[in-house]
Every structure is written in structure tokens, then in C-alpha cells.
Write a structure and sequence with these properties.
The chain is built from 17 helices and 15 strands. It has 541 residues and is an alpha+beta fold. Helix 4 crosses helix 11, helix 8 packs antiparallel against helix 10 and helix 12 crosses helix 17. It is globular and about 75 Å long.
């Protein structure tokens, strides 16, 4: 890719602007790098950005800049931020649909952060709504007639699988066993979401395992919000061996039961692999490490790589098929409205088999032309793997230091493990697109990082809980900047943004069956000043 002198100058200007604070000055570490302790470098020396502005989550890592990848990073950033269209003229951001969830990635990740809590109508056109629907049968199995991340939009001539204008989110109050009150009398509130989808909102039949019908009254409806995407390259650089050692340690400690679907008796029960030949799948196995449900392994075939395809349905060389279900293709192929207009949009799909067959074959095809080039996909992954973690703040404040001590003493630091040291960062890719050690992407070998997660699933047993009840410990790094970066008035914590404050998030950990029950009991014993210190610490990291 060639760049003009003007482009290089403009990129330099963007870099300067991105590093300046909102008063025009450049934020600097409180001392020189040599004097600054590791706790300030949340993402290690290769993965930390000293920026506390509203663009704090958008910065490239030093590894990106050291490797001369800045322009590729900025190009990938535009793919994340800009809107995709239906255009099939070979434009950079064409190829939206036929079904999709959002027109851009930034819709789900305001300020590159966790999504914002939403009320009322489920409006995914609004930037900031990071919610994805979670629709299952009574046994928490996904509905097979809908994609795992259900789509609520379509491009002409197709119709959306679900009419999102009929979806509503209501927030109900919840009172815990302590009456939402600490022993010293201080009160807090708890709320949780209830999602309602009427039966006439569905375009497809409701089918479960093996295609069996699922009665509308038996469908479980939930929402899960997106998480912050900064620092995912650093989490990917944690070695497989160190992940296994953490599971083995927790199993041996025996404080709570691990999810035996993943790990049992010192060994993996299952690991992530990509066996699909149409994806270029290698079949190699690696531990699950990304998403609440631990559904993805290495980053190069994980949440971002997958979401870029299934959110917009834009094809690429190793995803030459639509994010689609056979049930939808069957309904759409028999829809008279779709049949009447199909050839207006897809004249090259006409065959002697007839319009019903042509529609079905198009929707289920596995040999579609790539709509984004390999070069641009590499740029996207340079950006995704290259997002820095904001440096910690106020780490010498007396209240923050007190909060850090209490955070450890009451047990928060067991699951929200403060530090990891990354491995060799082999940069594996089960989809086969990137090679081991691929020089096109930034790497983070042997970095001491501070994500505050054990990368393991635990159970909190909350009201209207997350699907399956198991949730990977969410990294806490940078979350104190969420409101500044997203413009939200709330902290928007937990998997569905039910916690509007840090206190609410902590207290949602406190059910009698929760793996964190003992920790919450200890938190309740703290004085008001100590509780405030814990909050201040969490906001600082």
C-alpha cells in the first residue's frame, strides 16, 4: 500500500492529536520510564499508552509504533469505525448483508469500550448499544433457526429474522438478602434486565436442537453487552501453558468448582479448534480464552476476527459464506416478496433451477467472492491486536493503596488476578490465515501485564443470570475510564450492564451460591471509608 506525503503528514497529526489531552497538553508519566514502577504499565512496556482522554482506549501500543505498523493500524481503525453498505462495486466498505447485526463495529463499542446500558426499545442503530441478543431453549441451548448472535437487520430484498422494533428491555429492582444495605446503614440499589420479544417479531420458526420446535413461551431471552477491546493482543500473548497452570492451581485449591466442560483432573476436557476447511481451519487446539462464554481461542480466530464477519456479514478469503442458518434460507426462499425482487439485486444468480432454489443456494453458498481484501483484513487485525491499555492512574494515592490492600485481603484478587507475564507470543491462528510468528502483526513477548483476570469462568448465580451461569472473569484494566470514553453517566459493568456503579457490581457477586460469596461477606465488613477505597482502587487500574 502506497501513501502520499500528505497522508504521512496527516497520520502524524492524528498521532499528535491522539496523544494530547483535552486541554491541549500531552499527558506524561509522573516520572521517567526508568523510575516508574511496573504497576503503572497495565499493558507492560510494549502495550501501555499514557493517555487519559476520551480517546484513551483508541491508542496504538508501543509495539505497533516500534514495528512501523502505525499506518496499517490507522487503516484498520477506519474499518472498525466506518459504516459498511450493501454496495457490491468493490468499495472498501461494501458487502453488508444479506443479514446483519450492525453496520459498523463501533456501534457496539462506544469509545472502543464496553457497551452502554439501554432502556426501552432495543435500538441497535444507536451508537453505544452494545447489546447482543441471547436466545435459547429452556436448557440454555441456542435456537438453531437463528444465528448464535441473532440478526435484526436485512438488506433488500430480504427480511430481518427478528423485527427489533418489537423488542423491549425493562429494568426490574432486586433486593438481596441484606436488604440492599451495609451493616453501617449505607444503602445501594440493584437492577437487572428483562428482555421481551413477542411471537410475531420472529420471521423464522423457533427451532432447537435437532430442528425440534421450541414453543415461544419456552424461549429464554437475555442480552449480553460487548466488552472493551483494548489489550486483547496482550491477553492473547499469555501462553497456553500458563493458562493451563492457572486452571490446575484453582482445581487443586478447591475453593470452588471449575466448569468441567473445559477442565477436569488436571487436563483440558476440550480446547478451541477450527476444523472448517472453508475457513482454512488447521484443526490445531488451543485453550479457550475469549468471550464471556469462552467460545473462542487465539485472537487471530477469536472474537474480533469472528465479529467483523458476522456483525456485518462481509465475506473475506477465509469466510466465503454468509453468517446464516438453513432455517432462514428456507423461509426466505419461499417468501413471495423476496422472490419477486431477488433477480433485481442478484441477476447473476439466475439458473434453470428456479427462483426458490436460486435464493436458497445464494444464501447457503460457500464459494462467495471475498468482499474485503486480505490486505485490509490484515490492517484490521494489526489494529485489533495493536490497541494499547491505558496506564494505571493515581497509583500513589493513599486511598488507592488502601483499596489495593483490601482488594487482596478480602479475596477479590483470586479471580481478578492482578498480573500475568506473557509468553513467547507465538501468534497462532487456527483459521490458518496467519502463520505462527507472522511478521505482519504486533507481538508482546515477556511482558508483565496487569489485566486483573484469571481468564477462568466462575458462577455468580445472579437473578436472570448469564446463559449457562458460567462467565469468564472480565478484565478490570482501564474500566475506570469507561464513562469518559463512552460519554455514559454510569459504569455499565457486568455482562449485561446491570451494575451502574462499582458497588453494585461487587454486590451482584454476593448470592448465597456465588463463587465470590465469601469475598462479598468480607467486603460488607469493611468500613465505609474502606469500601470507598476499594472502589477508588478499581477505578484507578
Amino acid at each position: 500500500m502506497k501513501y502520499s506525503l500528505y497522508t504521512l503528514f496527516f497520520a502524524a497529526a492524528l498521532c499528535a492529536a491522539g496523544c494530547a489531552d483535552e486541554n491541549g497538553s500531552s499527558p506524561k508519566p509522573p516520572r521517567t520510564d526508568a523510575e516508574l514502577s511496573d504497576v503503572w504499565y497495565s499493558g507492560g512496556r510494549l502495550g501501555t499508552a499514557f493517555n487519559t482522554t476520551s480517546a484513551a482506549f483508541e491508542q496504538p501500543t508501543p509495539a505497533v509504533e516500534n514495528s512501523g505498523m502505525y499506518l496499517s493500524f490507522k487503516n484498520g481503525e477506519t474499518l472498525f469505525e466506518k459504516i459498511f453498505t450493501q454496495a457490491d462495486d468493490g468499495s472498501v466498505r461494501g458487502g453488508l448483508g444479506p443479514l446483519y447485526i450492525r453496520t459498523s463495529c463501533v456501534h457496539c463499542h462506544p469509545g472502543y469500550s464496553h457497551g452502554r446500558r439501554q432502556e426501552g426499545v432495543f435500538n441497535t442503530v444507536e451508537i453505544g448499544n452494545g447489546y447482543l441478543l441471547v436466545l435459547t431453549d429452556e436448557n440454555d441451548n441456542y435456537l438453531t433457526s437463528l444465528t448464535g448472535m441473532p440478526q435484526t437487520h436485512a438488506v433488500a430484498p430480504f427480511k430481518a429474522p427478528i423485527d427489533e422494533s418489537k423488542i423491549t428491555i425493562s429494568w426490574l429492582p432486586y433486593t438481596d438478602e441484606w436488604g440492599n444495605r451495609f451493616p453501617d446503614g449505607e444503602q445501594y440499589e440493584l437492577i437487572y434486565p428483562v428482555v421481551t420479544i413477542p411471537e410475531d417479531a420472529y420471521y423464522v420458526p423457533l427451532l432447537g436442537v435437532g430442528g425440534a420446535p421450541v414453543p415461544h413461551g419456552s424461549v429464554r431471552t437475555r442480552v449480553e453487552s460487548t466488552i472493551g477491546i483494548y489489550g486483547t493482543g496482550l491477553l492473547d500473548a499469555i501462553s497456553d501453558e500458563d493458562l493451563k497452570a492457572e486452571y490446575a492451581k484453582q482445581e487443586q485449591d478447591g475453593y470452588f468448582r471449575l466448569n468441567e466442560a473445559f477442565f477436569k483432573n488436571g487436563e483440558w476436557v476440550k480446547q478451541y479448534s477450527n476444523p472448517r476447511p472453508q475457513d482454512g481451519g488447521t484443526g490445531e487446539e488451543h485453550p479457550f480464552r475469549f468471550t464471556y462464554a469462552l467460545s473462542r481461542g487465539p485472537l487471530q480466530d477469536a472474537a474480533g476476527s469472528n465479529a467483523f464477519w458476522n456483525i456485518t456479514n462481509v465475506t473475506r478469503s477465509n469466510r466465503r459464506y454468509h453468517y446464516m442458518t438453513a432455517a432462514y434460507a428456507e423461509v426466505a426462499s419461499k417468501d413471495a416478496d423476496v422472490q419477486a425482487r431477488f433477480y433485481d439485486y442478484f441477476p447473476d444468480r439466475r439458473t434453470d433451477a428456479g427462483v426458490e432454489s436460486d435464493i436458497y443456494d445464494y444464501l447457503m453458498a460457500t464459494d462467495l467472492a471475498p468482499e474485503i481484501s486480505d490486505e485490509y483484513y490484515v490492517d484490521l487485525m494489526v489494529w485489533h491486536r495493536g490497541l494499547a491499555v491505558p496506564a494505571a492512574r493515581n497509583r500513589e494515592d493513599a486511598d488507592v493503596l488502601l483499596g489495593e490492600r483490601k482488594f487482596a485481603e478480602i479475596g477479590c484478587a483470586y479471580c481478578h488476578r492482578p498480573t500475568w507475564t506473557t509468553g513467547d507470543d507465538r501468534l497462532t491462528d487456527p483459521s490458518g490465515f496467519f502463520e505462527d510468528g507472522d511478521s505482519r502483526l504486533p507481538k508482546y513477548p515477556h511482558q508483565k501485564i496487569w489485566p486483573y483476570t484469571d481468564m477462568v469462568q466462575h458462577r455468580l448465580c445472579m437473578q436472570n443470570d448469564i446463559r449457562t451461569g458460567w462467565c469468564r472473569t472480565t478484565p478490570l484494566w482501564g474500566r475506570g475510564l469507561h464513562r469518559k470514553c463512552t460519554g455514559s453517566a454510569e459504569s455499565d459493568r457486568m455482562h449485561d450492564c446491570r451494575a451502574r456503579t462499582v458497588i453494585e457490581a461487587i454486590m451482584w457477586h454476593g448470592s448465597a451460591e456465588s463463587d465470590a460469596r465469601r469475598t462479598v461477606e468480607e467486603f460488607r465488613k469493611l468500613s465505609s471509608e474502606e469500601r470507598d477505597a476499594v472502589v477508588k482502587f478499581i477505578e484507578s487500574i
